[in-house]
Amino acid sequence: MKTLIKWFAKRYVRKDAIKKYIHDANAKLSEKAQLPDGKEKVVGYGEDAARLTGVYLTALADDGRIDPATELPKINAECDAIVDKYLTDEWLEGLVDRFF
Fold first, then answer.
1. What is the pLDDT of residue 39?
2. Which of 2, 4, 9, 22 sits a CA distance of 20 to 30 A from 41?
3. DSSP the chain
4. Calpha distance 31→26 (Å, rounded)
5. Chain mean position to CA 41
6. pLDDT attached to residue 75
7. 77-97 b/e with 16+ CB inside 10 Å = b?
8. Whole-angstrom distance, CA of residue 68 vs CA of residue 54
9. What pLDDT does residue 58 have?
10. What's the CA gap between 4 and 75, in Å, rounded?
11. Distance (Å, whole) CA 74 – CA 62
């Protein structure tokens, strides 16, 4: 039985079949996927997260480490930009007031 399953898998599990499955799944997703009102905000969060992830990956890609002299400042600058974009001191003050 194991030999038969292995033969079937080797014969039919191919890159083209996997690509077709992914394309079919993407087609189903495109029919069902809908963002709520304010979709620009949700997409913006995703784009910011992807950009920050990209900065980390770029820093790690060359040698597997984050160089404190050259790469860390870029990461810190991107983190600062995201904090500046989404947080204000007033908002944080209000958050503290709600909890205490």
1. 76
2. 22
3. -HHHHHHHHHHH--HHHHHHHHHHHHHHHHHH----SSHHHHHHHHHHHHHHHHHHHHHHHTTSS--TTTHHHHHHHHHHHHHHHH--HHHHHHHHHHH-
4. 9
5. 15
6. 96
7. ebeeeeeeeeeeeeeeeeeee
8. 17
9. 96
10. 52
11. 15
Cα distance between residue 51 and residue 85, in whole Å:
14
Q: Residue 7's pLDDT is what? A: 83
Q: The tokens of 86 are what?
A: 């989404």
Tokens 């709520």 belong to which residue? 36
Average pLDDT of the chain, as a whole number:
89
The position carrying tokens 């990461």 is 75
Report angle CA 74, 80, 83 to the nearest 5 degrees: 145
Contact 60, 66 (CB under 8 A): yes
Tokens of 76: 């810190």
* Token pair 């950009």: residue: 51
pTM (2 d.p.)? 0.62
Both tokens assigned to 65: 């480490």
